[in-house]
Design a protein that fits this description.
47% of the residues lie in helices and 8% in strands. By secondary structure, it is mainly alpha-helical. The protein has a domain of 44 residues. Strands 1-2-3 form a 3-stranded antiparallel beta sheet, with no helix packed on it. InterPro entries: Gly_zipper_2TM_dom. Keywords: Lipoprotein, Signal.
Length: 118
């Protein structure tokens, strides 16, 4: 009985899994299917301050900007070092944590910039 189950398990592992061959419905995002297979190409414009933007199918304008992750990480590291240097009493953990939090918020805000793109 054990040999039978082992043979079935080995055969199941040896057979490759068959992929699904169905197309997604037309209203589904389809993991970029429409973007890859459509004739629509967005027309890019450049604003006076150098930010590229485009008009979507819905008539709204879109732009690609930094989300501030790099600034958040660099700001947190720098803030932790400054906070540790300022807090000279005791374990200095409080100064490090507060400095990292403040530096992360400041670094993220600086990297995102003041540009409003809607």
């Amino acid at each position: 009985m054990k040999k039978t189950f082992l043979a079935i398990a080995a055969a199941g592992l040896a057979l490759p899994a068959a992929p699904a061959l169905a197309d997604p419905p037309p209203w589904a995002p389809a993991h970029g299917h429409r973007a890859k297979h459509s004739d629509y190409q967005p027309r890019y414009y450049t604003s006076g301050n150098g930010i590229r933007y485009w008009q979507g199918d819905d008539g709204r304008y879109y732009c690609k900007r930094s989300n501030g992750t790099t600034g958040l990480i660099v700001g947190a590291a720098a803030g932790a070092l400054v906070g540790r240097a300022i807090d000279t009493r005791g374990e200095r953990a409080t100064g490090t944590i507060l400095g990292a939090a403040a530096g992360a918020l400041l670094g993220r805000r600086i990297e995102q910039g003041e540009v409003r793109c809607r």
